[in-house]
Design a protein that fits this description.
By secondary structure, the protein is an all-alpha fold. The protein has one domain.
C-alpha cells in the first residue's frame, strides 16, 4: 500500500523502515476501504510515522502521559505542515 501512496523512493523507504509498519498499514487499508483519497492517506501515513517515531512505539508496550507531553513539546517541526484529516469517523 505504501507504494501506492508515495511516489518518492526516499519517502517510501522511510515508511517501510518505520516502527509498527504492519499496524500503520492496517489502519491505512481501513481508511482506503472507507474511500479516503490518496492525498489523505499520504498525510495520515506521514502523521502515523511521526507519532510512532516520536513516542518510540513498539509492538508491545505502553505510552505514558509524560511521553506524549514530551513529544508534544517538540512541536510540529519534524512532522507534516498541514493538520491531518480526522483519523476515523467510524472507528469507535
Amino acid at each position: 500500500m505504501f507504494d501506492q501512496i508515495f511516489e518518492r523512493s526516499d519517502a517510501l523507504r522511510r515508511q517501510l523502515a518505520g516502527p509498527l509498519r504492519e499496524a500503520r498499514l492496517a489502519y491505512l487499508r481501513h481508511r482506503a476501504e472507507q474511500g479516503a483519497p490518496r492525498s489523505t492517506l499520504r498525510k495520515l501515513a506521514q502523521y502515523l510515522l511521526v507519532v510512532t517515531e516520536r513516542l518510540n512505539l513498539q509492538p508491545r508496550g505502553t505510552v505514558t502521559t509524560a511521553q506524549i507531553e514530551r513529544a508534544a513539546l517538540l512541536g510540529p517541526s519534524a512532522g507534516p505542515r498541514n493538520p491531518p484529516a480526522p483519523l476515523c469517523s467510524n472507528c469507535g
